[in-house]
Amino acid sequence: MRRTLLALLYALPILFLLVFYVYPLLAILRVSFSVPAPEVVSQTLEMAASPSFWRVLWFTTWQATLSTVLTVLVGLPLAAIFARFDFPGKGIMAALLTIPFVMPTVVVAPAFLALIGRNGVLNTWLQASFGLTAPPLQLEQTIGLILLVHVFYNVAIVIRTVGGFWSNLSPSLGEAAAALGARPWQIFHTVTLPLLAPSILAASLLVFLFCFTSFGVVLILGGLRFATIEVEIYRQAVSYFNLPLAAFLSIVQLGVTFTVMVIYTRMQAGLSRSLRRRRRSQPRRPADLRQWLLVGGALCVTALGVLAPLAALVVRSFTLGDPGLTLIYYQALGQNLRQSAFFAPPVAAIGNSLLYAAATLAISLPLGVIAAYMLAQPRSRWAAVLDPLLLLPLGTSAVTLGFGYIVAMGPLRASPWLVPIAHSLIALPFVVRSFLPALRALDQRLRDAASMLGATPLRRWWTIDAPLLVRALLISAAFAFAISLGEFGATLLIARPDRPTMPMVIYQALSRPGLINYGQALAMSTILMAVTAFSLILIERFRLPGEEEF
Amino acid sequence: MLELRDIYKRFAPDKEVLRGIALTVAPQEIVCLLGPSGCGKSTLLRVIAGLERADRGQVLLNGADVGELPAYTRGVGLMFQDYALFPHLSVAENVAYGLRMKKLPAAQRQRRVEEMLALVNLQSYAGRAVDDLSGGEQQRVALARTLAPNPSLVLLDEPVANLDRLLREELMGELRRILKQLQMTTIFVTHDQEEAFALADRIAVMRAGRIEQVAPPAQLYRRPINTFVASFLGFDNLLPVERANPAEGVVRTPAGDFPLPVRPDRPIDDCRLLIPPDAAVLDDEQPGPTYIRFAGRVLTTTFRGSFFRLEIASMHGEQRLRFEFRTRGRDHLLEPGALIDLWLDSAQMLLVTEG
Fold it and tell me: Minimal Cα–Cα distance from A443 to chain B, Å?
């Protein structure tokens, strides 16, 4: 009886993934192959031969490659400083670097516009200072801006992956090379770099994956000039209703992302193996002025890079088109303006978003906890099924998922539950992977010790399990909450227009002309940023050191 | 060969690690820095290697001050406690690393690598990955790599500490044979006095950033300069001295009076009486003219294989003393509580300065 109950419980997350992940993806395949066989071939060939397809694929690939290279170039020196030095403000720097991790694209893209866009803070300041008539920085709708934002988003991945690996390298390796006559640059390229290579490659793969499937950034900042596969899927599915082409693009993209994902997983396993039984290096205080300048510079670049766009967003939302402070954009959020695109006052979107986020918590937390308990049991048959199944959604783009729901869910398509379900699916890997390490760290011997000291099972759970797990649960919840609030790609495809979320409102406002719409977008972005920042503080507050499993 | 003059090093204002180190090492000599963890011995090694710079003082190598030179120009070899083998390179590539840095032509390089691998008995291991080797094999690769560029001075940081007991014994002998065969000037660091005794020509005992005593092993063992050195070498019978009167020829301790050992070169206040653990005999007859009778009560007996250790409380003053006796010829050990009479050899006793 207990076994059956347990099996039923364990079946839940697997069932959820099958119905809301595997089935929609299969449905996309079905759309591609809905026509008779000979036509499938000719139709596919036709699409594969079209120049627009190649243009999109080419752009997606090269911008992802370039973004990855730039991210590594920026991230590597920061990783080195992080791994080798101990300095005041290091904790703050680490916290700053988690900001891009959870900030939604609909916050970051407008934030960069607010900083260096045509009406951005920087341009306004430069024009005022030097008496220029035209804004000197012309970055809007250029590839440069897209690349910049991609670096902003992904540099933390390089710093965490490579920096973590770097600080695990025994310091005696470099010293041994020095004692054998290697100069500093020789040490770097004969010892340090070869040893770091796997971690750099792993980080690059992940960055490439994220840039390859970049959606919000390209959609908002790229205008009509640039489109990744992801953006093209959205346009084909929503604007042109060309479902076969959207399906074809989805399949191409899934092929690429799954391949990258498989290589990445393999590499991760290799990385953790090569890290065993090595002496960790102790980060040191900078020794001389040169090193202090290096560290100070890194700190400034990080703080400026992360905070300047977000600060510009806040500033702009209060000062747009007005030399003094103004609240009109915030006030406008509460009104249903005639020329506005919305059915309801935009402020209603805040309520919608919070409701969806709450529902996402209600779905993803129980499923995630069950899944984590399954995975924590070594050699369980359930875990063997669930482990790869859980990893795949990480490599699946949100737009593809949303598109899958459109073609798969039939009458369910209009259900308001579809949004939190999609959010839960996207949040699930994060929930599991923040909860699992805490669960694994729960040493059975601690429980045994508590029992030997006379704790009843209930007291044991309350005094040992609960205190150790409650922090992890809070972090998982904060992640799920932040992901739901900021989710853009899937939501855009499946949310009902009369129940828009905050990201949808921001996007719609941004794509309308006029200062009032732009200002509303900035104001809404600021609010979303504040709410996300709150969950971020929760995450940072409760994080146990060295426990991420990404 | 190597001369250290008045070396000071601090890591933080309140963390002075080296406090006036002076030491001279002769060519082909093996010198051991012996001391408890945190005494600064590894830091001193790193200062000599050039991985740390001394705040004050000079490092003279063959007469030239190398204190300002970076590690890679000093031509000093350093073997790390964790060996620091490059995991991405094979055994042969590890050994060749220093030769590559010296820009030795490939043919010579290969010859030298083969030579070094033969020296440490790993001829057939050239192509192996270092991660596949056992601890002892890794240690030998590390040694070959350190010696390959023919350094003028070799530094070994706890060279056998990471190995299990049996292997340690074997490799210590091997290590000394190789270093002597190559006529290598060597400084090594350890916290284990057995290692120091087995390997070194001379031992420098360090404590809190200073060198307390430098002497050849046997001399160090026979004449520890103070109670710190004595207890670090494993002597624990150090009786407080209440009065030592050269005129009377008697040392008074809580455990009774003892004949005054010969120490004319030192003032004899503020010192302790050292009785080595092997200075006691359990015979009935007096073994020699220097032996005196000593009565005690057995506290514990510990069987240690070839010898056993007896802890007794002195009849007079209840002082705890430990002695070691050979097991051979005894079919039973003494029971706790038994009263015994020992012979103690006063010629082996020593007055040791407190400190």
Answer: 28
